[in-house]
Structures are given as structure tokens and as C-alpha cells.
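Researcher: Sequence recovery benchmark, item below. Answer with residues only.
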């Protein structure tokens, strides 16, 4: 039998959930979070501990400590982190919460108010940590839960803050839903049924888009690449879903960046996400990359050839070959230096010299890459190559076969 941790606040919903699961023979334990926001929280903590003892089940409690003014989201995140820690420490594989059909209606209205794309209420179950989160009461209304509690003579505690209209959910609960119920008596059941169906449709969409990603996206540990033409063939909802899945996989939000680059008329583009994460468009490919933003790297000196040099995250290979390609050895003054771009750098071309920064722009090298590109310079200060981009041109360079420096 699965070991279930029941989140019990002390309110009627969670007390009914605990009573039902115990009477149905589930192997349960109680988890309670003291938010430290109200004087009544101390008594509620003691009350829930006594309730757990009355059912002869384990009790796990904690008190949160946040600075005044912390958001509801902060408390929710901390609450669920505690639940997950308890599950991991004590071997519970399931977390049960007391969300019900009225909560689904409130959530749908909040989602509509916030104009979110996924208006689908609350799922009956989902993955949580290493286990599963279930909501056994989701089909039942608040009225039904109160009737059950009274019939079974259960005691519970009312959270006074639930009556305040400071928070959006409470305003919807106390000011909007009562009017809806008057005009539309079956609104709770109807919205629940619709939300459940919509959730199933989204679930299928996520599965389908997951398969699309496996087939069409080049996935690397810290990067992905997707052809723009393939991405454009998706519907708007599919593109949104693909972006959501990729955001979860890499831990950085890419949706807005993908859309901006996708619809841009420019052939290339860069969108900074956060930290070292960038979305880029090049050669009709959308790329998520992680690039160092370090302005410069320590120069590396090369005394003799051949040589293999590590420059930041790049490996630069210098070799001597006989042929018509590369840099004539007689043009080189030792020692050589591998360094990063500096202001005013210029390179010799057939038509004269040209700023290295301009060459990088002409070659459509993304600006996020430029600071880390290795430049090869000889002892005279002449830039011989922008490694991987361009080699300096020599006026006396001919098709004659001779020893030449090859840079890779």
C-alpha cells in the first residue's frame, strides 16, 4: 500500500480528506505548516497535531520564517518544499491535498482574469518530487464537504484571512462566485467537467509536442537547435507547448525569445534570456546557447610549431603543412600570441586593412560569441587570423607550394 502524506491546514476541507483516507484504510501521515502570519496559527498547529494523534498517525510540522510582506507565492513554494522534504526523508510516495471543485472554479476564473493560455483548472494528479500529488476531493463541492464534516461531527478551524478580500482568489470567492451561483446554479459542476476535459486535451498536446521535439530538435546538454521552417509549421498552441517543454528542460524561459526571433524579418538575431543564456537565429535555425560574457581571456603565447593551445573553452590547433592554403611561414615573426579581440584591431586584406569588428559583422558572427573568439597575432603585432572565421591575406601570397601555417 502506498504511504500517503496528507497536507492538513486544519480547515474543513483537509480535515474531511484526512478522515476519509483514514476510514478507507489508507496508510497516512499528517503534514502541517505554521505560516507565522496570525496569532491563531499557534493554536491551529496544536489542533492539527492533536487530530493526527487522535487518528494514531504520524505528524510532521514546521514553522515558516519570512520577512514581513513576503508574497503568497513565497509561502506556497516553501510549503510544498517542506512536503517534498518530508516525503523524501520518511519514504512517503504520495502527497494528498484537499482541493475541491470550488477551487477549480476559482482557479479557472483567475486564469481567465490573467489571460493565460492554458485555462485548464487543477489536475486530479500530477508528478510531485519523486512521487505523485493527488487531489481525492476534486470532484466534490465545498457544500458537500461541510455537510460530510457536520454529519460525522468533525471539528475544524476557520482561517480568518480567508474572509479578507486583499487577495484576488478571496475577492473571486466572496464577491463573484456567489453571484455566479445565483445565476448559474450548476456552475461549479459545469466548470469542473469542462476544465477536466480541457486538461486532458492539453495533456495530449504536451505528449504530442514532446514527440515532435524528439524528432525535430537537436537536443544537447546546454543547447538546442531547431530549424525555423520546421518550427513555423506548428500551430500557435503547438509552438507555445514546444517552448514550454524546452523551457522546463533547460530551466530558462524561451517562449518570448522564440516568437520574437521567429517573426523577425532579419536573417540573424540574438535575444538575451538570463545569465549566460541566449536565443539566436542563424541560417534559418533557432538556437539556445550558453555563452560566456567574459570580456577578455588571458593571452597564450606560442614559441614553436606545431602546437595545440587551450583558449577559454576553445581548442586552437596550429600546424605546418606543405601546400597552397594557409599562411606562408616566411611571413611570420615568432613568438605567436593567441588573444581575444581588442578595440582598434585591424587585419590585412587584399584591399588594405579592415577593422576586425567590421569583419565579424560582415561574416554575421553573433555579438555574444565575439568576445571569446581567439585572434592569432605574431610578434610584429600583425593579426594573422580570426580563428574559425578569417585568415589574413598577404600581397605576395601565390599558388606556389610552400610551408604554410594552418590554423584550426
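Model:
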Amino acid at each position: 500500500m502506498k504511504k500517503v502524506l496528507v497536507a492538513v491546514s486544519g480547515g474543513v476541507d483537509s480535515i474531511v480528506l484526512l478522515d476519509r483516507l483514514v476510514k478507507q484504510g489508507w496508510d497516512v501521515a499528517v503534514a502541517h505548516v505554521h505560516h507565522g502570519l496570525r496569532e491563531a496559527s499557534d493554536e491551529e498547529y496544536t489542533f492539527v497535531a492533536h487530530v493526527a494523534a487522535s487518528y494514531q498517525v504520524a505528524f510532521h510540522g514546521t514553522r515558516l520564517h519570512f520577512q514581513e510582506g513576503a508574497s503568497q507565492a513565497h509561502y506556497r513554494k516553501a510549503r510544498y518544499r517542506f512536503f517534498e522534504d518530508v516525503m523524501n526523508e520518511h519514504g512517503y510516495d504520495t502527497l494528498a491535498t484537499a482541493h475541491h471543485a470550488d477551487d477549480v472554479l476559482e482557479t479557472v476564473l483567475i486564469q481567465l482574469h490573467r489571460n493565460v493560455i492554458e485555462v485548464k483548472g487543477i489536475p486530479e494528479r500530477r508528478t510531485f518530487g519523486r512521487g505523485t500529488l493527488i487531489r481525492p476531493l476534486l470532484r466534490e463541492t465545498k457544500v458537500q464537504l461541510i455537510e460530510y464534516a457536520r454529519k460525522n461531527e468533525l471539528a475544524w478551524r476557520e482561517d480568518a484571512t480567508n474572509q479578507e478580500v486583499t487577495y484576488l482568489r478571496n475577492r473571486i470567492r466572496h464577491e463573484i462566485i456567489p453571484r455566479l451561483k445565483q445565476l448559474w446554479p450548476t456552475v461549479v459542476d459545469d466548470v469542473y467537467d469542462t476544465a477536466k476535459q480541457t486538461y486532458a486535451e492539453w495533456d495530449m498536446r504536451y505528449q504530442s509536442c514532446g514527440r515532435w521535439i524528439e524528432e525535430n530538435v537537436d537536443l544537447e546538454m546546454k543547447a538546442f537547435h531547431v530549424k525555423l521552417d520546421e518550427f513555423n509549421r506548428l500551430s500557435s498552441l503547438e509552438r507555445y507547448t514546444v517552448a514550454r517543454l524546452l523551457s522546463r528542460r533547460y530551466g530558462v524561459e524561451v517562449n518570448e525569445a522564440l516568437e520574437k526571433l521567429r517573426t523577425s524579418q532579419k536573417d540573424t538575431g540574438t535575444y538575451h534570456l538570463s545569465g549566460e543564456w541566449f536565443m539566436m537565429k542563424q541560417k534559418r535555425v533557432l538556437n539556445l546557447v550558453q555563452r560566456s560574457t567574459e570580456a577578455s581571456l588571458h593571452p597564450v603565447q606560442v614559441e614553436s610549431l606545431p602546437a595545440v593551445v587551450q583558449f577559454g573553452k576553445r581548442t586552437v590547433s596550429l600546424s605546418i603543412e606543405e601546400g597552397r592554403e594557409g599562411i606562408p611561414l616566411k611571413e611570420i615573426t615568432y613568438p605567436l600570441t593567441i588573444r581575444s579581440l581588442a578595440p582598434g584591431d585591424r587585419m590585412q586584406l587584399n584591399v588594405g586593412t579592415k577593422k576586425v569588428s567590421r569583419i565579424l559583422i560582415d561574416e554575421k558572427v553573433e555579438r555574444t560569441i565575439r568576445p571569446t573568439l581567439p585572434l592569432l597575432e605574431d610578434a610584429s603585432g600583425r593579426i594573422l587570423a580570426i580563428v574559425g572565421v578569417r585568415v589574413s591575406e598577404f600581397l605576395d601570397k601565390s599558388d606556389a607550394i610552400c610551408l604554410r601555417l594552418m590554423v584550426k
